[in-house]
Request: fold
Amino acid sequence: MADAPRVYRQRERQVDARAEGAPDHLDGLNDEQRLAATASGAPLLIVAGAGTGKTRTLVHRVAHLIETGVRPERILLLTYTRRAAQEMLSRAERLVGSASRSVQGGTFHATANRLLRRFGPAAGLPGDFTIMDQGDAEDLMQIARATLGVAQRNKRFPKKETLQYLYSRHVNTERSLDALLHDEFPAFVDWQKDIERVWGDYTRRKAERNLVDYDDLLLFWALMLDQSPELGARIASMHDHVLVDEYQDTNALQSRILRGLCGANGRLTVVGDDAQSVYSFRGATVRNMLDFPAQFTGARVVTLERNYRSTAPILDCTNALISRASERYSKRLWTARTGGEKPWLVAARDESQQTRFVADRILELHEEGVPLREMAVLFRAGYMSADLEIELARRKIPFDKWGGLRFLEAAHVKDVLAFLRILENPRDEVSWYRILLLMPGIGETTARAAIETMAQLAWDSGAFGRYAPPPRARPAHDALVALLEAMRNATPTDYAQVSADIARVRTMYDELLRDKYDRPEPRLADLDQLQVIAAGYPSRLEFLNAIALEPPQGTQDLAAGGADQEDDVLVLSTAHSAKGREWDVVFVIWAVDGFFPLARAIGDDDQVDEERRLMYVAMTRARNHLFVTYPIHTYGTRRGADYTMDQLSRFLDRGVRETMERVALGDNDATAPPDTSPPAQPVDLRALLRGRFNA
DNA sequence: TTTTGAAGTCTCTCC
DNA sequence: GACTTCAAAA
Reply:
C-alpha cells in the first residue's frame, strides 16, 4: 500500500513536465467509458460493442485502480491471448508509469500454470509436471482406448479425437457425459460406460506419468479454490481486483474459477460483447455474460455503444448483419465518423479472380500510402488462403499469417519436442511412445514393451538403457540410448542450451526425416526455426511451457523469436485470430455458403448463429475500407462446394446488401473458350515418348 | 512383429 | 489432397 502514492506523484511529475493543462488520465473517455473505468466496489460487467474502446476502457480502469491506491501486483488481468495482456499493460504503463508492469496478467491457462507450479505440491501435484497439448491428449486417449480393447469389441466406438473432445467438453462445460452424448453424439449413447472407462484409464495415466492437459490446468485451479478452504483462501487473497477481457468467450469452468477467486460480491470486472461470442466449440457460453448479474450480487452493468473504429457506412453494414442474430444484450452502435465509402461486395468469377482482385487492390492501396500492416485479409479457415498466399509470394508482397497452430502441430516439430520432454519428464509416456515409433525396427508392440519395462524400473532415467530390445531393434536402441545419454550429460548451464539440445536431437532425427520424405527441406527449415525460437529461452522447461501455453501467433513471431517486428507486412488471418484487432483496410474472402458459414455448421441453428457472429467479428475489424469478396464458381475443387450451390453467403441477405456497394468483376481477363479446331501440323505424342525412352 | 501399400475418411476455429 | 486405418507381405 505504501508505494501507491509514490507512483501517483511520479506520474504527476511526468505529466507536469510534458505540458501545461495536462490531461487527467480519464480525459478522452466518454461518459460510459469513464463510468466503467472508475466504478468501484461491486462486480462490474461492461458490455462493449465492437470498436467501442473496450481495451481503452480496461486499460484506464487498471490505471485508475493503481492511482487510487491498489497495488499493481494485486491486480489480475485475464485476457484471451498473451499478446492482448502485453498490449494492455504497456498502454497502462503510459498512463501510470512503470508500476503497472507488476500487474499480473495472462491467459487463464497460463495463470493456472503459474499457480499450479507454486501451489500444486501442497495439493498432491508435483511442480514439475509436463503440459500436454490437444494432440498429446488425443494420443494418450488412444493409448487408453487401445489398452482397454474397447475399440475391437465395438466397431463404431468413438475415435480418439472424439474421446478427447467429449472429455474437454465435460470438464469445461460441467455437463454430464450422458447429456453431451444425447445432444451431440446420439450414436454413442450405448458406449457411455466404456467411454467412462477410457477416461478413467486416461486419468490414471496422466497421474502416473506426471502429465497435465489443458483442461486439467483450469480444473485443478478450480478444485484448489473450492475443495481446499485453506489453499483456496490463500489463492483468492493474492489479488484485490480481477479483470477479465473477452468474457463472452469464457466457459462454465472459468466462471466457477472467478467465483472462487472473487466470491459472489467480489471485486471483479468483466468485459465482453455477446455479439462476438465465437468460441462455443471450446465450451464458451454467453450465459456467463447473461447470468453475470444473477451470479454476482449487486453487479453493475455498463454498456458502451459509441463506436470509434469504423466509418458510418461500415457500421451500417455490420449493424445490419448482426441485427439478424438473437442478441441478448441489445445495443445500437453509433459513430460520429460520417463519410467514407460503403463496403464493397465483390463478385468474382472464381477463386483466381478473387485472388487477383485482392492482390491488385492491396497494391493500389499501398501505392496510395496505406502501409501493408494496416491491411488484413480474413477468412473462415486457414486453408482458404492457400491460393492467395501463392499469389502474394509471386508478387513479392510480404505477409504474415495468423491463426492455426500449424507450425507446432507439424509432426516433425512435435517429434523433436518429444525428445526435450522426456529429458524434462522421463515418465512422459506420450513422448516416449512417439519417439520409439520413429525408430526403425520398433513398432507398436516393441514400444509398449519398452515403456512397460521403464514403468517397472520406476522410470529411472537410465531405464531405457536397461531394456533389452529384440534383435531387429538393437541398432536403433543403441543410438537412442547414446543420444539421450549425451543430452543428459550436457552442462545444463550452457548458454542457448535448449537450442543446443535440439541440435543434438537433430544429429539423429534429420536422417530419419530425409529417409521419410523426398523433399525434407521445408521440414528441416522448420527445425532451424525451432532452434532460433528455443535460443530465446533460458531453460527447457520454460521453453516447453511457453510453447504449450503461448504459441507464437504468426510466422512473423517465429522468425523474430518473439521480438517485435517493425516490418511492413500484410496480415492474413482466420476470423478467430483476428478478434480484438483492427486495420484500416479489411478484406473478407470466401463469403460463400459452405465456406462462410462452413458447410458443417449449416443445419444447426446455433452453429449458424455462431458463424454469423464470426463474420460480424471479421467485418467489424475494418476502420476505413471493407471489401467482402466471393467467387461465383468454386468448381467443386473443395468439398464445401458439394453442399452448396455456389451461393453468396446467407449472411449477406438483401438488407445487408443494401448497405453495400455491389461490384461485379468484369470478364476482361477471362480466358477465351479453348480453341478446339485441329492444328495444321499434327503431332504424334506416343512416337515422341517412344523416341525419348528408346521404347 | 514391422513395414508397406492400398483403400478409406474427413476436412475448422484455439488454450 | 493429407492423413488414418486396414490387410497382406517380408
Notes: The longest helix of chain A spans residues 497-516. Confidence is low (pLDDT under 50) at residues 1-23, 554-565, 639-644, 670-674 of chain A. The radius of gyration of chain A is 28 Å. Residues 483 and 489 of chain A are 10 Å apart (CA to CA).
